[in-house]
Structure formats: C-alpha cells, structure tokens
Amino acid sequence: KKDIRILAYESSCDETSTAVVKNGREVESLIVATQIKSHQRFGGVVPEVASRHHIEVISQITKEALDEAKVGWKDIDAIAVTYGPGLVGALLIGVSAAKAASMATGIPLIGVDHIMGHIMAAQLKDEIEYPALALQVSGGHTEIVLLKDPIHFEIIGDIRDDAAGEAYDKIGRVMGVKYPAGKTVDNWAHKGKDTFHFPRAMMEDNDYDFSFSGLKSAFINTCHHADQIHKKLNKYDLAASFQASVIDVLAHKTIRAIKQYRPKTFIMGGGVAANHGLRERMSKEIARLPKSIQPKVILPDIKLCGDNAAMIGAAAYNLYNAGKFSDLTLNADPSLEL
Ligand code: KG4
Ligand code: ZN
Known about the structure:
Elements: E1 5-10, E2 15-22, E3 26-34, H1 36-40, H2 47-68, E4 78-84, H3 88-105, E5 109-113, H4 114-120, E6 132-137, E7 142-147, E8 153-157, H5 164-174, H6 182-189, H7 213-228, H8 235-261, E9 265-269, H9 276-287, E10 296-298, H10 309-321
Parallel strand pairs: 1-4, 4-5, 6-9, 9-10
Antiparallel strand pairs: 1-2, 2-3, 6-7, 7-8
Helix pairs in contact: 2-3, 4-10, 5-7, 6-8, 8-9
C-alpha cells in the first residue's frame, strides 16, 4: 500500500503552523510560528494582529515544512487546512494559502475542523480503537466527544460559559500571570494546596455539561476581598484550589461518561490537555475502573496539545480515506461545529 503524505496548515488563532504527516500517524515535519509575544501586552489575542502575523510567515513556513520533511510538492497527496472554528481573519490566511497551493499544484484539498484536529493529536501517539471517547479541553472549548469512527463525532457534553482554558487565562490575569496563563497556573498549583475550596459547578447534574464561570467569579471575589482588607493570599494555594476545582469536575463527568458509553479508547486533546494535574488524575481514575470497562488511554505529547498543524494532518488522513475532499469554494467558518 502506498504511503499517504499530507501537507497541513493551521492558523485559527495565534500560532501559524505547517506540517507534513505520513499515513496520519507519523510527523515528518512540524513548524509552529508562535505570536504569543505580540499579544501578551494586550492580555489576549488581538484578531487583526494575528492575521497580519499569519500572512507574514505562511509562505516561508510552507517551504520549511517541505524542506524539513525532505519532500517536494510531487510527494504530497493532499493539502489540509483548518477552516474553523476560530478567528475568521486568521482562518482565512491558512485557507487562502492552502487553496492557492492546491490550485497551483492540482493536489486535492481537505478542510479540517480544528476540534477534530485537537482530538486526532492522539492518533500521532498511538492507534485509536473505536468507539472512542475524548475530553477536548482548550482555550475556546470544553467538551466530551464520542467518536463512532475516525470521522463521525458526537458531542455529548459541552461548556455552558467560559471554556477551561479561558478560565485559566482569566484567573491567571488576576494573579498577574502573562497570557496564556494555563501553564504557569498549572506549575503553581503543584506547589500549593486546595485551601480555598472553590465551588464545583454542576458536578452532580445528570448530564455531561460544564460551567466554569461560577468558579472564576468565586476566585476573583476572593482576591478582591483580600485586596480590600489588605490581606496577602498565597498564590500557590490559590492556583492549587482553582485547579482542584477544574479537575474534580472534568474527571467526575468524564469518568461517568466512560461508564455509560464504554469506549475502547479514551483520548484527551486541546491546550488544557497539557495540564499535568489533569493528565495524572485521568490516568489514575481510569486505572481504578474495573478491567472489563477500562479503555486504553492516549494522552497526546505535550507539544501536540496546543495548536499545531500536525494534528490537522492526522485528522485529514482520516478524511482522505473516507473520500471527504473539499473544493476551491472552501471558506473559513469561524463558528464551525463538529
Ligand atoms: O488548544 P489551544 O492551544 O487553543 C485553543 O484552541 O483554544 O489552548 C490554549 C489554552 C490556553 O487557554 C492556555 O492557557 C491553556 O490552553 N493551557 C493550559 C496549559 N497549557 C496551556 N491550561 C492548563 N494547564 C496547562 N498546562
Ligand atoms: Zn486549539
């Protein structure tokens, strides 16, 4: 059987990325041009700034991805690109670059959902057996997704307000941590204890939905109150308490979903899947399940949890096998749903 090699683009938010992925499993090259420094002084991503950065680097990193993989256009079987969800102007840069490349070379085009990409980062680590269940936690999304096969996904639990990563970034900001705050808050959490006992919203509800805005408000109120009475709070304990709350809710609902749906594989994906506490907790809780319902666990490499084009190449391979190609009418869809 012939190897299938995909050149992939990702530009939905604040990283411009290209990659060459072989057979949906092997990363032959991966370039990630991050713009985080340009957005930090604004405390978050500025859409117009993001688009400008994407356009500055995208041609250059297309060449770099091919060079690093030691391949040319003739070796590429498909060109994949994230077309949503994300910032419309940012998405358009990747979509336009991929369409132009496809038109110039005649190589088929595949539009990929960013969330499907995050979930398929797991495929770059190990083989996914279906049905699978994914906890997809990023800056914009927090959901439990059921994978019937490599391309048919169903969201069984969703976020009602602030996504997990967004909550990390917002409470991080209150503690003076630079955007994106998740990684630093995670590190601090390991040095502290859950002394504040923040709320665990919707824990006992009979669904798989999440809400983190109450937790965020409780955190902010605690800090403001301390400010007013000039009390200094321990930042490590604040981080540990926030993180314990997030992880308790995510783990509790995910384990309940695993018990109900009995997937063969459990996957984590998205920026927050890099969280050490969450990775540890999920692995531990799954190991404690009865052997008969214990799914195989795939936690993607930390560097593939955040936005990158390799995960888009992995997801595109599955679409390629299913014959799901796009044509040159492909457009950015900022609110694309799985
Ligand atoms: O998936 P991603 O790169 O972008 C989106 O598609 O949203 O996720 C970025 C989010 C940010 O909110 C960032 O703070 C969070 O992931 N994040 C973390 C960690 N590393 C990144 N959150 C918690 N713990 C981490 N170690
Ligand atoms: Zn993402």
